[in-house]
Amino acid sequence: MGFEKCHPAVNFIYFATVIAGMIVFQHPIFLLISFVCAFIYSIKRNGWKAVVFNAVLLPLVAAFALYYSSYNHFGVTVLQQNMIGNNMTLESLVYGFVLGLVIAGVLIWFSCVYSVFTTDKVVYLFGKASPRLSLFLAIILRMVPRIKKEAKKINTALRGIGRGANQGNVFQRLRNSIRILSMLITWTIDSLTLVSESMRSRGSSLRGRKAFSIYRFDNRDRAYVVGNFACLTVIFMAVMLKQTDILYDPRIVMNPITAMSYLFYAGYAVFCLMPLGLELWTEYRFWKARKVL
Amino acid sequence: MAHFQIKDLNFAYPTGKGKKSLDGVNLSIEKGEYIVLCGKSGSGKTTLLRQLKSVLAPHGKRSGEILFNGTPIEKVSQRDQSAKIGYVMQNPDDQIVTDKVWHELAFGLESLGCDQKTMRARVAEMACYFGIQDWFHRDVANLSGGQKQLLNLASIMAMQPEVLILDEPTSQLDPIAASDFLNTVRKINIELGTTVIITEHRLEDIFPYADRAIVMDGGKVIANDTPRNIGKLLYEQKNDMFAAMPTPVRVFYGAEGSGDCPLTVREGRTWLSKTYPEPTISTLPAEELDDEIEKPALSLKELWFRYEKDSPDVLRGVSAEVPTGTLYAIVGGNGAGKSTTLKAVCGICKPYRGKVRVFGKPVEKYKSAELFGGCLAMLPQDPKSLFVKKTVREDLAEMTKDEKIIAEIAEVCEIESLLGSHPYDLSGGEQQRAALAKVLLTSPKLLLLDEPTKGIDSFFKEKLAKILCKLKEQGITIVMVSHDVEFCAKYADMVSMFFDGQMLTTDTPRRFFGNNSFYTTAANRMSRHVFSMAVTAEDVVELCRQNVGAEV
Amino acid sequence: MFVIMMLWFGCYNKVLTSDKFSSLFGNLIPSVSLLLVMVFRMVPNFIRKTQQIIGARKSIGKGISENATTKEKLQDGGTVLGALTSWALEGSVVTGDSMRARGYGTAKRSSFMIYRMTGTDWILLVVMLVLLGVTIAAAFFGQFAATFVPAIDIAPVSWGLAAYTGYLLIPTALHIKEAIQWHISRSKI
Lengths: 293, 552, 189
Known about the structure:
The structure holds three protein chains of three kinds.
Chain A: H1 8-24, H2 28-46, H3 48-71, E1 78-81, E2 87-89, H4 90-116, H5 119-129, H6 131-159, H7 170-201, H8 219-240, E3 246-247, E4 253-254, H9 259-291
Antiparallel strand pairs in A: 1-2, 3-4
Helix pairs in contact in A: 1-4, 2-3, 2-4, 2-9, 3-4, 5-6, 6-7, 8-9
Chain B: E1 4-12, E2 22-29, E3 34-39, H1 45-51, E4 61-68, E5 71-72, H2 78-84, E6 85-88, H3 92-95, H4 101-111, H5 116-130, H6 145-157, E7 163-167, H7 175-192, E8 195-199, E9 212-217, E10 220-225, H8 227-237, H9 247-254, H10 265-275, E11 298-305, E12 315-322, E13 327-332, H11 338-346, E14 353-358, E15 361-362, H12 368-372, E16 376-379, H13 392-399, H14 403-413, H15 428-440, E17 446-450, H16 458-473, E18 477-481, H17 485-491, E19 494-499, E20 502-507, H18 509-515, H19 522-527, H20 537-551
Chain C: H1 2-15, H2 18-26, H3 30-58, H4 70-101, H5 119-140, E1 146-147, E2 153-154, H6 159-168, H7 170-188
Antiparallel strand pairs in C: 1-2
Helix pairs in contact in C: 2-3, 3-4, 5-6
């Protein structure tokens, strides 16, 4: 249940737009909305690990703000003079805070992306763009775990005759490691040759290659995309009406907050919270169906 | 010395009113033979097999002799019989005694009082031979049907028997598990030299590999010969049992072929290629398919369902439309979710996404009494779950008090003679029809059948098909979930394939099975290189006749 | 006290599974242990079959609607119970056949023991007996006395309590020791 059951294209559109929004908009209210939504969604998807992760991020953001303001000296409101005589201004502190929040927010969104996107969805999306590239990606995704396993196997085998990577003095260890590395490279090349033979015997070099798609675009995906673009229209209007502009240098200047701004804030919040809403709605329907049993 | 020597065996049940269940049976079974025992339900197969083991022999009047390795069976000690004669029964669940796999494997050895070392060694070697070592520590409740029956076989083989008697072992299993099981039995016969006596309704898998086939009818042995000659004999006698023969045999004799009778699909293909190298008429016309179905009886849209919040989805976007007055079959692998779909239609499982519409109205809008009293009804996989009273008549009377309607339905289902019996005393096919009668008493317009042909022989299958056709003429829509590809190919109007939680392809039987190369009938596999769109044995015979007519 | 009992029963349930229980009594009274094993097997089967019967009856319209009277609910329950009993009896006949076909009752039963006493088990047994002995001695000396009537009078903490605590903590200590050993051996790889 949940967002990962939607079509990968839907996932991609959503995450691309929401991360772009996070980076582009530096207005504090929009930023805050996006950050809070990212926080809530990451907790829903990852549980307690997300709380720990986010709790570690916030002090880092504050530290980054301090660091930023001690090296950038624009702005007029002086807070303090540091040892060399440069000014530490309020504007630079706030801007540093904003940048830190942007980076933290993007990290949290990426943790959500990681839990929604599996490797075969990435391969599928690439496959729509270019089948050969997606095939290349699929081969790499399979080879990397195999190389790790083979490295362990070679190391264990060599340990049995006393030539392992952590046996002997420093020079011997270095020599053993280099030996293992060269054997690993030989093995990888050999394995790739076999893989390519297997591919060619099944006709991978023929023209007209199509990609097998296991994902279907159903009605729920259609409805979601429509909703997504409706929210994007609202946000675009906000940009047109300069509701998202803000200046930090030399003075913090924002457009006044009117009743209409609340509309745009609500629109942005809805946009960021749509997957969460989808997951909660599906779980509610599941719970209701079970209750009647 | 023969392994089993049966001399002039007669047996009658005490309640049989003098009718002999076994009449003058004379058989000799050599060591290491693979014997297939076939016959209609009630012909005496199970009675004969049970006589071969004293603890299982039923009470009754018996005359004649059974010799095991030269000694009369009554004189062979219980201990010897348990160790040397193994018996596998039909129901995988009921045969298992303990709740853990390792305990069940050791059960027989424990009963014989073996010491620890012998038990450990034998259990270990049996587990390895059968490939059970992966699930050695599992609970029995978590095994599939095929695994349970394999466990029964392993538990018996751990006692190192000389002869293995199997009484319809695969009737409750799906086709893949059944063929795995029968292959294992064959492996045991070939590699260990164990004598195997097996009775089955599904003869396709075992007929070609048997050393001898014995046909029984009415308690008498009417044929006892190699499988190839049996086919010829049954065809010449125009016996009912001929319909149970494997497809290549039926096609060969139906088309009046000459030479050696083919027993396997491979031999059938060779024979067809030789006899019809260039057929002029090589395809049958496919049936028409309506594109738009107005007023479907049942419409499923994007159903999603799972049992627990954290378990994977069982139904993943199931969509289908069933036209009114048709027999709609759903086929697919074991555990794919076909039964769950039927339960979702009934409302037993509620999907959390998607809509179910019965006759145009969403199923949640129906009140329970309205839905099951005249609209739809489901016949479950295990028909015994429906019987709650002591006689069939009382069970039918639970549904309605009207005697006339009960009599009518009993006539449609051909169970008039069974109304006074206890439901559990009936055979598999009779229980199926009695359960169907009970379901029909709700006068449904949409009938859902979950595996109706499980464990019944070909004679009863034809009877069931006739009943279903009668119901279709009355305008009842029938949705059937089945593993039995041959039955669906012969009688269904539309066939749909269920895979990965979705209904993939829907088509008429000829096109559906004609386009598949593996999941199709034996007749299609045998003839697809020569004829196309021939999915039943009758189709192939028809095409053969047309080609002979054309050549002449 | 009730809460403590329930907690201990929860732990017992987790540790002592059905097959351990039956292998305990296996060698002493094989037939009783076999009976216990069969009961353990039947209970979940019965529950599953009851659900099947209720589902089957619902699908032909004999399910219980939400606003049925108590009498109707009892009647329906009785019918389902009757059906379950018939099914169980039929199944047990086949099980009995299957057991006798494999030689049940022909000879004195032995028991397949999948659990063996190892050296560690013996040491643990000795430690447990020692601590238990000390605890019983302490109880004998009145160190565990506590009266609540007429005034609360609890015996002071002493070495008896320490022995009792040690006894109770044996499984926990085993778990911790295993976890530490596992970590150490993992870090060595």
